[in-house]
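User: Good morning. I'm curious how norvaline would be positioned relative to this chain. Could you predict the structure with it bound?
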Amino acid sequence: MAVSLKGRNILTLRDLTTEEIWQLVKTAETLKMEKLRGQQNKVLEGKPLGMIFQKPSLRTRVAFEVGMSNLGGHAVYLGPDDIKLGKRETTEDIARVLSRYVDGIMARVFSHEDVVELAEKSRVPVLNGLSEFTHPSQGLADLLTIYEKKGCLKGIKMAFVGDGNNMAHTLMFAASKMGMHINMAIPEVYNPRKDAVEDAKRFAAETGGSVNLMDDPQEAVKDVDVIYTDVWLSMGPGNTDQQEKEKVERRRIFLPYQVNMDLLRLAKDDCIVMHCLPAIYGEEITKDVVEDPRGRVVYDEAENRMHTAMAMMALTMGSQT
Ligand code: CP
Ligand code: NVA
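Assistant: Good morning! Here's the predicted structure, ligand included:
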């Protein structure tokens, strides 16, 4: 069935159908191949993208900015001190004004409600570049990477090990929509949002996948094709004393959830290890895992951020179908 994402927002993979996610992954694959062959695809010729960042970024910023220029458009970076979302002026006014200048908005925000409000008030598509709830542009790059490495998505077994954070939500949505089986090894006190788990389980029931919450990382990684982890403390509003205290407490609770060689030995021999990066080596993942060929995948995954960002922009802002 032909689907069209033209003019649509991408705020969470929860809102997309399996077909729409496939279209994004396959378009990213095509754009990547074209780029490797040196073919130019200027589907966004002359179009500007506004990029709002409330938090730091390497991958997301560069993936969208370079991706936009690859497609013939250009990006305007608005950092934390430029527009001060919701402080200097309302989020609503920022959406209304910015969308008079640009053809698309990508936003990295603290609160997911802000990206929802931007989308509601904007005339142009809004793409979520990470909120505390979810990180869909990363999830799409992860799906492309798994598809490239394993040749399929349906039936793939995956374990997420760590915090029930924005990446946990993203991967539950991604896996359940694509008929994958995902074990979530998370200490109970840091479990993902209940509504996200319920939705993901519902999607999995429709696609033949499964979502299993558990607290034993060793049990979770048995027989899986993919192990995924992320930082134990996500980017917050600042380095407050409270956060520092929390860091120490989290380190204590999460240490048994570290992805290290001992854990990797329990998975399939050809299991790959993924991480959205940035990583804190010696905490959620050890350096030797990333130096192992099964863990070097994290750099292919990072590269795929650009190809999937291009697919998101081409499909929502351009005429690419
Ligand atoms: N993975 C990811 O979103 O990286 P950045 O924070 O560097 O954008
Ligand atoms: N969970 C991490 C992801 C960073 C890409 C964070 O929100 O900081």
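The first strand starts at residue 48 and ends at 53. The mean pLDDT is 96.
Let me know if you'd like a different ligand tried.
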